[in-house]
Amino acid sequence: MGIAGLIDSPIYAWGVLPFLIFLSRVVDVSMGTVRVIFVSRGMKYMAPLVGFVEVLVWLLAVGQVMRNLTNPICYLAYAGGFAMGNYIGICIADRLSLGLVMIRVITKRDASSLIACFRNADFGVTSVDGEGKTGQVKIVFTIVPRKELSRAVGMIKQFNPQAFYSIEEVNSVQSGVFPLRSGADSRMLTRLFRPMRKGK
Question: pTM higher than 0.70 for the full model?
């Protein structure tokens, strides 16, 4: 059976084609999630590149659906690929862990031990006195790379399992104290992302 015969066969129409549409949707939706992350991080070179590939794959998928409007499996594959693409995109975003986050801790306890833990981890820390509904509190701020978020939260939990804290996205910073990567990996990432961030 030649290529033309394979394309005209029921196996292709009801099996291979829906699978390709599903796969295309997974790719373009997951890339769309990554593109949004790049845009929010100010990576002005990577975001357009990912967006170009994303739209190209999407056009291919939609084109196949429009050519097979009488095939309901193609509709299911298109919708299923969209759903799976969202899931995979979130997984990729978690793995990338790009950017910075600000952690704000508000506590009525003496925060000296928490501040010491942050500083020992090379996290920049700012603390101020405040007043809450129930009295005086200590407010502790730190900005950390997203990759270090779980580590920082672990320190907070160790300080006080019931501590109140919030986490916010940080688009860019001018300067600060951050834990340093070691080795060639650090130098490679620095060269790669330095021209892609805002304000650099």
Answer: no
